[in-house]
């Protein structure tokens, strides 16, 4: 559990990181939209899921979204070396995970971590280029799955959000969603190079906001003192 000072600092970093990686996200989206043969299958996959959700999944898919939600809690619990005691998922009653210990990353992870999409991103560089369009379609499909359920589940009455504060939770979820959506788009070409470039660009842009904000604060403070 971090104190309010730690939460304030982390929220500030998330805000600046969002600005930096949003610029990188826009840049890579524009780049791939200029090469339709790469972007079209990604967009088609996203559109297919959206259509299926409207006509089919909105009534029948709840169980799988619960499973994915709880599995993400489990994954982050293991990443933070927390012991998982139980895992349950029900079509009508939702799901739950009993974990020994907790933190905000574990609690908020289902709202910002597109589990299925990240799995695809990690295997893309090892797949032959002629099959990348299939993975790009699946990437669009799974990313839309994440976004649809994010919109449905991210609301003030969620216990995960209330526990750590709505504003703090919003800033954390916003940053990591921008980060991972951009990473998914940067992976469309199917190799590590564009992903590395995206990570570096977002970091540089975020750092520029940090240094720029510090200069303004420093100059304003000095002006007030002298």
Please provide a written account of the structure.
With 226 residues, the protein is mainly alpha-helical. The chain has one domain. Helices cover 77% and strands 7% of the residues. It has a two-stranded antiparallel sheet. A hairpin with a 3-residue loop joins strand 1 and strand 2. The radius of gyration is 19 Å and the shape is globular.
Adjacency order of strands in the biggest sheet:
1-2
- Tally the beta strands: 2
Class from helix and strand fractions: mainly alpha
Instruction: Round the mean pLDDT to the nearest integer and report it.
Output: 89
Strand content: 5-15%
Q: Biggest sheet: strands, sense, closure?
A: 2 strands, antiparallel
Count of structural domains:
1
